[in-house]
């Protein structure tokens, strides 16, 4: 195994990605969960949109209301990101037979991401159950005061006491489906956007290359997040309902729940919370990818594209361009290649 990509370093970089994601995205997630809980029920308060929901939270609970449930989210997301990024990196390295060498390989990316998502769902499910139950509490909540929790630990303990150990894993199957599919979409989008942005950028000097890498990370991570949540939001809606419904005998079949929501509210109901989810997806996932890639560089993990392969791809891509533009682009890539070799 390549020493620059081995061992604990991938997991440490993933841990930093998870911390960055929670700090950036948790307030948006709170709004999303409240919308999914209240706007899909037949009773209780209805929010007009994500902005109305956020304004109500700030008005009744202050900024801390937006970070309700953040403790369990930090713990869960830190371990989840550490594992998913680490498992993804190590499995992809194994399936493609070495470090990144050029064009993304779907046969390595998709199974690696789906496998990582399936593994982390077992850790993510309990932490998200606690997070969601904490988030749906508040001034507008239909949850009785006697049934509310003072903190994440009390929520977890009471859940286990009332529902047994399996109660803390309520919604586990739906979480597994969401994470497997979502991570496959996320990493596929991320890898292809990252590859094509590097392919089409002009050669950057050593002074500006770090800024270019950050920009590529922001775009590839942000677009990956939007693609991921656009694909799995209905499953997330079903998961929220499964995990926050007080009835023990309530169905845990996500497809039956979505069918019921579709019958009442149509496709729009299945995508409840889309606004804050998409608004959250770009900055939160962009922050995660930038943190992951910067941490990987600091730890000495080799994730750079093969510049010889990249140069050959660019020359092929510019073959159909005007001659002047093609020569300029070739010189730019040659400059990037020379800079890269000098740094190595």
Structural topology:
Layout: H1 9-38, H2 50-61, H3 63-66, H4 70-96, H5 106-135, H6 152-163, H7 172-200, H8 209-244, H9 254-270, H10 274-299, H11 307-317, H12 323-343
Helix pairs in contact: 1-2, 1-4, 1-10, 4-5, 5-6, 5-7, 7-8, 8-9, 8-10, 11-12
Short description:
With 344 residues, the protein is mainly alpha-helical. The protein contains 12 helices and no strands. Residues 1-5, 306-311 and 326-333 have low confidence and may be disordered.
Describe this structure in words.
The chain has twelve helices and no strands. The chain is an all-alpha fold and 344 residues long. Helix 1 (9-38) crosses helix 4. The longest helix has 36 residues, at 209-244. The two termini are 20 Å apart.
The tally of strands reads 0
Order of helices and strands: HHHHHHHHHHHH
Question: Rg from C-alpha positions?
Answer: 22 Å
Percentage of residues in strands: under 5%
Number of helices: 12
Protein structure class: mainly alpha
Features of this protein?
0% strand; 344 residues; mainly alpha; disordered N terminus; 12 helices
């Amino acid at each position: 195994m390549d020493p620059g990509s081995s061992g604990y370093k991938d997991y440490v970089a993933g841990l930093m990605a998870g911390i960055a994601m929670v700090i950036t995205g948790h307030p948006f997630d709170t709004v999303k969960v409240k919308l999914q809980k209240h706007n899909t029920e037949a009773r209780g308060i209805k929010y007009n949109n994500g902005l109305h929901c956020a304004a109500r939270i700030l008005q009744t609970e202050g900024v801390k209301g937006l970070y309700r449930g953040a403790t369990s989210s930090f713990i869960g997301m830190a371990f989840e990101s550490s594992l998913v990024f680490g498992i993804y990196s190590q499995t992809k390295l194994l399936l493609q037979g070495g470090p990144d060498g050029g064009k993304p390989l779907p046969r390595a990316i998709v199974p690696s991401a789906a496998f990582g998502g399936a593994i982390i769902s077992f850790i993510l499910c309990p932490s998200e159950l606690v997070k969601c139950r904490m988030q749906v509490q508040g001034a507008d909540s239909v949850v009785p005061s006697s049934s509310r929790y003072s903190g994440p630990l009390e929520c977890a303990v009471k859940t286990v006491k009332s529902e047994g150990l399996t109660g803390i894993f309520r919604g586990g199957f739906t979480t597994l489906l969401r994470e497997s599919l979502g991570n496959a979409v996320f990493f596929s989008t991320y890898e292809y956007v990252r590859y094509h942005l590097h392919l089409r950028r002009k050669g950057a000097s050593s002074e500006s290359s770090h800024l270019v890498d950050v920009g590529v990370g922001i775009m590839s991570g942000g677009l990956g997040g939007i693609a991921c949540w656009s694909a799995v939001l209905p499953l997330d809606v079903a998961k929220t309902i499964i995990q926050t419904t007080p009835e023990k005998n309530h169905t845990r079949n996500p497809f039956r729940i979505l069918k019921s929501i579709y019958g009442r509210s149509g496709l729009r109901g299945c995508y409840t919370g889309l606004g804050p989810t998409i608004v959250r997806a770009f900055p939160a996932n962009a922050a995660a990818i930038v943190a992951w890639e910067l941490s990987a560089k600091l730890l000495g993990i080799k994730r750079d594209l093969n510049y010889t392969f990249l140069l050959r791809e660019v020359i092929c891509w510019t073959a159909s361009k005007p001659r002047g533009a093609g020569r300029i682009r070739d010189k730019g890539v040659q400059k990037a290649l020379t800079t890269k070799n000098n740094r190595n």
